[in-house]
Specification:
It is built from ten helices and 17 strands. It is of the alpha/beta class. It has two domains: 178 residues, Response regulator (Rossmann fold), CATH 3.40.50; 145 residues, Response regulator (Rossmann fold, 3-Layer(aba) Sandwich), CATH 3.40.50.2300. The protein has a seven-stranded mixed β-sheet, sandwiched between helices. The chain starts with a strand and ends in a 5-residue tail after the last helix.
């Protein structure tokens, strides 16, 4: 396991947030209000989170994965700077680290422990049940039946992925696009399924025949690296799909996807990538030129909302559900023609208001 600690800054912004979130699968919106004012170190004690310890346990991708672990930690850092909480971090190097990391933080007296990733579900459940006075929040998972002191931070990523599939179908020059995942778990496959359905929607609307490699909607199965770490696996899968004609690839695989971006760089512009979780043209600047768009999962806002509830003395099992309607998910455009982008945005609005069903 790897341990890192957050540091308080000398100049801070103070913010107040409120969260309204329904149970997983509901249409509840997240309402957030923010006011900022510069404060100095001398006034730090006045911040509402003084004395609160917020802790995060990553999955094996690590906090520098340029993806969901990293943006989760940004939410922690936002809580530190805006609320005044103290933050701490443990990185898991294998699944054997999950339970010890969680026990370490429980023993330390963390007020809220945020775990990152579906794979930490069992360990988080056990820790929450063993420590009922501690708040827990888990990214990309939820508990059924609910646990009183644990909430899921979940995201309807099939919605922006549908938009990305339509976008890819509209930009391919070969008529073939591809996707693949790290491990076949729901938070990964939901992206791939939404993407394939977006391509199918484009074909239906345009009378086109764009083919999707790497995902079969009927079988709910596809191509997976089997891990979230190996850049070589990402390069090899991208090469295989490119050899079959794919010129746009949507890797849902954390650092494995960075390998696909490396392959795209080496392809001399023949292959483009759609990123996931964050704007990959920003988080992976060395390969910025290969990204045409990214599917956004605004985990930082969800993490901040969960910590804010803890600061406010709220313990809840209500899940945060990020959707297009409440801004919890979205699409960042890097190199998309204006006309196609307008079409994709209109589709997103249709999904948000319910006129387009996924």
């Amino acid at each position: 396991m790897i341990k890192r600690k957050g540091l308080k800054s000398a100049a801070l912004a103070i913010a107040a947030f409120s969260l309204i979130a329904g149970a997983c699968g509901s249409d509840s919106d997240t309402a957030t209000e923010e006011t900022t004012a510069e404060v100095t170190e001398e006034t730090y004690a006045a911040l509402p989170g003084e004395g609160i310890l917020a802790c995060q346990v990553t999955d094996t991708g690590g906090v520098d994965d340029k993806g969901f672990n990293q943006i989760s930690y940004k939410g922690m850092q936002d809580a530190e700077s805006t609320l005044g909480v103290e933050i701490d971090l443990l990185e898991s190097t294998s699944d054997a680290d999950y339970a010890p990391n969680l026990q370490n933080f429980a023993d330390k007296g963390c007020n809220i422990i945020v775990t990152v990733g579906f794979l930490l579900g069992d360990a988080t459940k056990a820790a929450a049940e063993a420590n009922p006075s501690t708040n827990y929040a888990i990214v990309d998972s939820a508990f059924d039946p609910p646990i009183a002191n644990a909430r899921g931070l979940v995201f309807a990523t099939d919605q922006p992925s549908f938009m990305a599939g339509y976008l890819a179908a509209g930009m391919t020059t070969t008529g073939v696009v591809g996707t693949f995942g790290g491990i076949n778990i729901p938070p990964v496959s939901i992206f791939m399924d939404g993407f394939a359905k977006g391509v199918a929607y484009y074909n239906e609307q345009k009378g086109a025949t764009v083919k999707v490699l790497g995902w079969d909607t009927a079988k709910q199965d596809g191509t997976f690296a089997g891990n979230f770490q190996s850049l070589d696996d990402g390069k090899n899968i991208a090469k295989s799909q490119a050899d079959e004609g794919a010129d746009i690839i949507f890797p849902v695989a954390g650092p494995v996807g960075l390998g696909s971006a490396q392959f795209a760089m080496e392809s001399g512009g023949k292959v483009k990538i759609i990123g996931v979780d964050v704007d990959m043209s920003v988080s992976n600047p060395d390969a910025a030129e290969v990204y045409i768009a990214s599917v956004l999962k605004n985990i930082d806002a969800a993490v901040l909302a969960a910590i804010t509830d803890t600061v406010n003395g709220v313990t809840t099992s209500d899940n945060y559900v990020g959707t297009l309607a409440n801004g919890g998910v979205g699409v960042a455009y890097t190199a998309v023609p204006a006309e196609l982008q307008a079409e994709v945005e209109a589709i997103g609005q249709g999904i948000a208001d319910g006129t387009i069903k996924i």
